[in-house]
Amino acid sequence: MKKIILIVSISLVLFPVCLAFGQLERGAGPKFYSDFKPVVGGWAEYQMTEGGGATSKMKIAIVGKEGDAFWYETSMETKQEGRIISKMLVAGNPEDPKNVKKIIVKMGNEPAMEMPLEMMQGSEEQGEKGKTLDKGTESIKVPAGTFTARHIQYQHEELVEDTWIHKDVSPYGVVKSKSKDFEMVLLGYGTGAKTQITERAQKVEMPQMPQIPPKRK
Known about the structure:
The chain is about 10% helix and about 45% strand. It is built from one helix and twelve strands. Strands 7-8-9-10-11-1-2-3-4-5-6-12 form a twelve-stranded mixed β-sheet, with helices on one face. A hairpin with a 2-residue loop joins strand 2 and strand 3.
């Protein structure tokens, strides 16, 4: 009986943290195969369409700087989950967990939470196993306008993803990205971005797992 109560207690402690981290992973958006070139205030907004036709919007922005690290913020809106905002202090490309120094997440109207970095353990960047091909320069039209963009193609096993990049779009330069079951197009971009998380984040500590006593013989 005591063991059952202990397991329930552990679940109640871990559930809010795991839920927030799960939302953070969903709010982080798609993977980018282009270079990360942050400029404070730079932002880009995208519409994403999945294979089944479901659409969502995402805005990425560089909203500040501390020393050599940048505050990289992602805001996503879906019909099912509403708005999820993640804000990371990064010393390099956010795609690599080793570059992440702080993580703040805000789900809807819930308080902003600073997540423990320990929750990133186990998701270390393994490096790209595929190859990236330069397909040259092309003219491409998206809702944000017509761009003369560099076309790159990432290939890994069955995945083939085409991305068009323009230097004026911060921070990844992406104008359009398309694979078999996913498409992302640029809706707008610019400068002057400010953080959408204005409150002080509540720091969440990684819960310590209680030791379950051994069975008595």
